[in-house]
Amino acid sequence: MAAAEVEGLEPEAAAAEEAAGEAADAVDAEPGDPPLLVGNRLNLDLYPRGCHRLLNLCAQRPPQLLEVEFLRLSGHEDPRLLEATLAQVPCSLQHLRSLVLRGGQHRDVLGACSRGSLTTLPAGLSGLARLAHLDLSFNSLETLPACIPQMRGLSTLLLSYNSLSELPEALGALPSLTFLSVSHNGLQTLPTALGSLSTLQRLDLSENLLDTLPPEIGGLSSLTELNLASNRLQGLPTSLAHLPLLTRLDLRDNQLRDVPLELLDAPFVRLRGNPLGKALPASHSPPETPVTPEMPRLFLNSDLDSFLVTPQGCSVTLACGVRLQFPAGATSSPVNIQYRLWLPEPHLVPLGPHDSLLSGVLELQPHGVAFRQEVGLWLLFVPPRARRCREVVVRTLSDDSWSDLETYLEEEAPKRLWAHCQVPHFSWFLVVSRPVSNTCLVPPQGTLLYSSGHPGVKVTFPPGATNEPRHVRMQVVHVGSRELRALLEEPEAAASPLLCLSQSGPPSFLRPVTVQLPLPPGVTGLSLDRACLHLLYRTPPEVVWDDITAQVALEITHLYARFQVTHFSWYWLWYTTKTCVEGLARKAWERLRLHRVNLIALQRRRDPEQVLLQCLPGNKVDATLRRLLDRYRGPEPSDTVEMFEGEKFFAAFERGIDVDADRPDCVAGRICFVFYSHLKNRKEVYVTTALDRQAQAVRGQVSFYRGAVPEEVPEEAEAARQRKGTDSLWMATLPIKLPRLRGSQGPEQGQGTSLSLAPLTLGDAETGFLTQSNLQNVAGRLGPDWPAVALHLGMPYRELQRIRHEFRDDLDGQIRHMLFSWAERQAGQPGAVGLLVQALEQSDRLDVAEEVRAVLELGRQKYKDSIQRTSLAPRDLAPPEPSASQSPEFAQA
């Protein structure tokens, strides 16, 4: 490169010369590589130096190279080398039909997929006459390469996850294009020539910045699927409603307040997340408004639990990952904001009958202080496993009642999702998954309410049904036919979706309201036996289902059943040959809310006193065990047990084994759990024994017992327990074995005969403390890095040499003796814990330092909780209690 500059070459020419030189070196350096050609495919995207390998093949020109039809290269190659390699493709792979140049194989420090370095394509690629498939996803394209519109035979073009802000008009010159994906870009407008793609069948424009669509989009006469989700669309052209072959139209999470009538009732249109029917606010600030450059940005460490907000505004990222955005003018004077992340507890997590918790509980203070402008809040959550007919919302406490906020989902990376909402004041916040909810305001003139999750479910309000406008809410719960058939032991049994209707105002309507439910799957109006059709009804808080088929007039069409009611509740349509279905319906409803799980208890291979306890869904047990068994060992998982969302259970160590720690979640020697199906119900504990392990191994066990169940399901859970007899609280028992200690492995010898370390505690309750069990955990994580930690703790080098000699064949003994001898000298002295954290950081063991901070935070929370229990803390520090007047099924209201 230096020689090129001396000779006066331009930088671009020098770069091309260097890339060519690298290609020539690659050809000379790798002549003896094993053959890469197998059939008509050449996959080099996962090979290191894939471009070098392809250049080598092009230089050798083996006969098999002309047969290649499918080529994959990584977008993470050097840009100049990649461009030089692609320039060789048209003359060397003349029969190429598919070219994949994806990025995304690498990940950044946060685990997100990194984009490739590809920014353009050489013009010569337009000579690939047979190319039909081109994938440029996860790259850095800012403009569409000029050669692409000249690829006349292209049928599939994938441009997702790039940085495109516009598409050229020349894109309309692709006569064979059937699939175009430009999702996750920055498109603000679409070219009018897009409508001339008469062969296009699938078009994905989701996750862009589109606010309008050109009317020419109605010219896509072959289009069957159109995805416009997560844009900024405020209106739709009427031509969109006249696409003749359209079978799927996704308009979720836009700004649509009105859509053409032809699309409103169409079953293939998805409209969730749009403010349909709502008036435009006076001062509308789009949720995607970027942070202004002048706005301060704060990133809080784990040791900070408060920050200051000024009238200038700021963007804040908390240590737990939560993001907040305070717009300028949100406060009139500086306000100190405090936050705390609570572990999920039933009294902190209000859930409806079919809700699932997806996050921890975030508390933001001061409570109730109204901001002059709404504050943006982003919460990380666990992606729900089931998404059909379900939605994710942020739930908050306001005026002593829980309500759900309008929530938008943002995807930073695969499986890393944010729930975004605007909040007027601070309180408690959590993310839940609930059945799709639809609401409307019923005027005296009447209206129509339908479910966006299941368009076949409708409620028609006639004129005069109410004198005063009242709010009505609808929720639809999807029901699996397989579980129902197994319960009824009837292969032909089926059930409609479960419908819940609630309202504000008087309990009854002045005129009957018509409810439409789809007939159960597999049943049509022409083939059904009306004697087998049952309409079931339930009134909360009762758990009894009543068969009201004989009390209503069922109007049956080919696909739907209609009936009239004057007040709202739960409705369920069954098709079965059974005659008494009330009790079966109660069991089926209970089964819908139960989760089938397995319990595991594993011991760490190098430290059997460390025990991992976890409750897992049945479909995740095998994968989790494969991941853990290289570090843990233990018995087979327990038999399958069933649990409700939010149900408490305990792990008790028995037969000579006890918990070796004073933990906030340990009550009467039992480790407390609260089951939430989407969260990690996992804890690691240290155990000990009073028996003599030098004489023999200790064979104990851990048993799991049920605790309290959520208030919403006490009768069902109690009935389920009574059916199991005397051992209704017991769930499973798994063996735990502490091996026999031999020679120097005894507690006294392993930690030095001159030490007396039990009990040993560093720190204090107010600032956080480390128990002996915590120190054992730290010692088990240091490994060969322990000398560096010891030196940063201030221990003399001579003492390190003595420890090495005394425990020369026992690395664990060296670590334990170093740490515990230092801890004994520091016991009772202030600042010892901070010194340990600092030494870990200086030794580049940030992972252990973070774990120590987490233990200290747990201790501080326990200290605050104990103060609250003794009424020594202000009331606003206490967690919220459920409102006595609130219905346990508030999620339906």
From TrEMBL:
<dbReference type="GO" id="GO:0005737">
    <property type="term" value="C:cytoplasm"/>
</dbReference>
<dbReference type="InterPro" id="IPR000906">
    <property type="entry name" value="ZU5_dom"/>
</dbReference>
<dbReference type="InterPro" id="IPR050216">
    <property type="entry name" value="LRR_domain-containing"/>
</dbReference>
<feature type="compositionally biased region" description="Low complexity">
    <location>
        <begin position="883"/>
        <end position="893"/>
    </location>
</feature>
<comment type="subunit">
    <text>Forms a complex named the PIDDosome with CASP2 and CRADD. Forms a complex with IKBKG and RIPK1. Interacts with FADD and MADD.</text>
</comment>
<dbReference type="Pfam" id="PF00531">
    <property type="entry name" value="Death"/>
</dbReference>
<dbReference type="Pfam" id="PF00791">
    <property type="entry name" value="ZU5"/>
</dbReference>
<dbReference type="InterPro" id="IPR032675">
    <property type="entry name" value="LRR_dom_sf"/>
</dbReference>
<dbReference type="InterPro" id="IPR011029">
    <property type="entry name" value="DEATH-like_dom_sf"/>
</dbReference>
<keyword id="KW-0597">Phosphoprotein</keyword>
<feature type="active site">
    <location>
        <position position="427"/>
    </location>
</feature>
<dbReference type="GO" id="GO:0016787">
    <property type="term" value="F:hydrolase activity"/>
</dbReference>
<keyword id="KW-0539">Nucleus</keyword>
<feature type="active site">
    <location>
        <position position="569"/>
    </location>
</feature>
<dbReference type="InterPro" id="IPR003591">
    <property type="entry name" value="Leu-rich_rpt_typical-subtyp"/>
</dbReference>
<dbReference type="GO" id="GO:0006915">
    <property type="term" value="P:apoptotic process"/>
</dbReference>
<feature type="domain" description="ZU5">
    <location>
        <begin position="303"/>
        <end position="435"/>
    </location>
</feature>
<dbReference type="InterPro" id="IPR001611">
    <property type="entry name" value="Leu-rich_rpt"/>
</dbReference>
<feature type="domain" description="Death">
    <location>
        <begin position="771"/>
        <end position="856"/>
    </location>
</feature>
<feature type="active site">
    <location>
        <position position="425"/>
    </location>
</feature>
<keyword id="KW-0677">Repeat</keyword>
<feature type="domain" description="ZU5">
    <location>
        <begin position="436"/>
        <end position="577"/>
    </location>
</feature>
<keyword id="KW-0963">Cytoplasm</keyword>
<feature type="region of interest" description="Disordered">
    <location>
        <begin position="864"/>
        <end position="893"/>
    </location>
</feature>
<comment type="function">
    <text>Component of the DNA damage/stress response pathway that functions downstream of p53/TP53 and can either promote cell survival or apoptosis. Associated with CRADD and the CASP2 caspase, it forms the PIDDosome a complex that activates CASP2 and triggers apoptosis. Associated with IKBKG and RIPK1, it enhances sumoylation and ubiquitination of IKBKG which is important for activation of the transcription factor NF-kappa-B.</text>
</comment>
<feature type="active site">
    <location>
        <position position="567"/>
    </location>
</feature>
<keyword id="KW-0053">Apoptosis</keyword>
<dbReference type="InterPro" id="IPR019502">
    <property type="entry name" value="Peptidase_S68_pidd"/>
</dbReference>
<feature type="site" description="Cleavage; by autolysis">
    <location>
        <begin position="568"/>
        <end position="569"/>
    </location>
</feature>
<dbReference type="Pfam" id="PF13855">
    <property type="entry name" value="LRR_8"/>
</dbReference>
<dbReference type="Pfam" id="PF10461">
    <property type="entry name" value="Peptidase_S68"/>
</dbReference>
<protein>
    <recommendedName>
        <fullName>p53-induced death domain-containing protein 1</fullName>
    </recommendedName>
</protein>
<keyword id="KW-0433">Leucine-rich repeat</keyword>
<keyword id="KW-0007">Acetylation</keyword>
<dbReference type="GO" id="GO:0005634">
    <property type="term" value="C:nucleus"/>
</dbReference>
<keyword id="KW-0378">Hydrolase</keyword>
<dbReference type="GO" id="GO:0007165">
    <property type="term" value="P:signal transduction"/>
</dbReference>
<feature type="site" description="Cleavage; by autolysis">
    <location>
        <begin position="426"/>
        <end position="427"/>
    </location>
</feature>
<dbReference type="GO" id="GO:0006974">
    <property type="term" value="P:DNA damage response"/>
</dbReference>
<dbReference type="InterPro" id="IPR000488">
    <property type="entry name" value="Death_dom"/>
</dbReference>
